What does this fold into?
Amino acid sequence: MKKILALVLALALVLSCASAMAAKVGVSMPTKDLQRWNQDGENMEKLLKEAGFEVSLQFASNDVQQQLAQVETMINDGCEVVVIAAIEGSSLGAALDLAGEKGVKVIAYDRLLMDNANVDYYATFDNFKVGVVQGTYVKEALDLDNAEGPFVVEFTAGDPGDNNAGFFFNGAMSVLKPYIDSGKIVVKSGQVAFEEVATPTWKTEVAQTRAETVLASYYADGSDIDAWVCSNDSTALGVTNALEANYTGKWPIITGQDCDIANTKNMIAGKQAMSVFKDTRTLAAQVVKMVGQILNGETVDVNDEETYNNNVKVVPSFLCEPVFASVDNYKELLIESGYYTEDQLQ
It folds into this structure.
């Protein structure tokens, strides 16, 4: 009898797993215009398929209405879980309401979905820590605690529609604002509020245009900038482009995030001082694990149930660790780990 019961339980487990493995999962990425979203989408699709899931992967061309329609289609087409990296965190309410009505679970991917109760989980990196890593690098590189100064610093933040952008900026400011307040850091543009330094859509061209305006208005006399704190690599690239074309002072420290190929090349060339490596393979693998746990009725791994409030609820989250990257360790982080090949960085 015990053997029969054991066999029945084993069979039930197999059938449960088979049911989950046959499930359909939707993955909505914001755009193909940025390298990281292509990588994230490809990693996610690959791992989900390897785990046995059917996958619907869509890119929304940075068009909110297109993303809304794509997610609604995923839900109506039978996806049991949808993973969403939102273009604008507060603009998918209709799709989230539909998910709630149909019992579809929602995982917000790297960007928190705002203003809706039908967000079940959030998977991202420790976004405040990303900014702390950037700010700490600038603090140590300029030796702010010991050097006389003052030092001239400018800031470029991310997309106001991306909840993460505020965490990045505030993390950096948590390190650097005391030096601004004391006068050790001078921001010649006077632009130190997130709203003043934000970059809609994170686009390189938008960051470049603003940087060109700042340079023309405050640095046309050839005066130096000691550091330009950029929240990610696409904005850092825009600032770098503007500096190369419009700046005659000494080259500043430039921060970034994501270790995009163009920016890693700039680190190697000495144009960008550092980036923050967020291994999207790790994040994608964690999300695939969470999808399986949801569909198998298991407890879903989270390690933060306090930080990420989407204005309706605190969303249970899993935070992966960001890693400092520079010319000194990029080979170990990016090449030896298989993230890039050497040829890609030539």
Notes: The chain has a mean pLDDT of 92. The chain has two domains: 2-119+279-320, 127-278. Residues 127-278 form a domain with the Rossmann fold fold (CATH 3.40.50.2300). The chain is about 45% helix and 15% strand.
